[in-house]
Amino acid sequence: MMIIESAKNQKVKDWKKLQTRKGREKAFSYIIEGPHIVEEAAKAEASITELIVTEGTDLSAYPFKELPVVYTVTEKVMQELTHTETPQGIMAVCKMVEPELPRHGKLLLLDAIQDPGNLGTIIRTADSAGYDGLLLGHGTVDAYNSKVLRSTQGSIFHLPVIKGDLVTEVQKLKEAGMLIYATEVSGGTPYQELDSSSQFAVILGNEANGVSDELQRLADVNVYIPIYGKAESLNVAVAAGILMYGLLPS
Fold this sequence. Notes:
By secondary structure, this protein is of the alpha/beta class. Helix content is 31%, strand content 22%.
């Protein structure tokens, strides 16, 4: 068994390119790290093309339908590739997918969410709450960013997460009969007063600027979460969680 020992090895250079959005988009691939998310990817039958492991890693516990190409690297090389303080012994290269946005059910539309931790938490919560898909508008952080992927805890493989133009998609969703909610810091309708619906989309806005004026005008209802204390606003991932569960049909 050959072990890759140098960070100058061409495969290592190729993998490091996947640490940038440009590199991921060019290769149409991304890299995941750690036993849990690799296991979730295997369970979901994600398109894993390569496994990167340190010597002695036991792959028998992973539910791969078919074992991908396996590369063994030294601890030092793994450290070069990792985004965590302590390498976890396994990484995987996955092909990107291009699912379509459903035109039914419960959807989240994200308008320029920039913090990777926020996006990852929103995806994980949407998965937990049984939502049917997420659309990432222009200016939103890349869903395949390493911190986003870690924050999803594998939920990235459980529902469609796609990129698109929010204005165009909102218009199409309205034509399909979907109810569109846009969030505001204040004003509009408190979310507790909304009638329940099984077909809707919620637009969540940028951490600093909220939902754009154009999208708020397109929405059927502008909605807010009442604040009873002295805080000016809620973190967008927290607000997303409250709304996702609060808007579920009872």
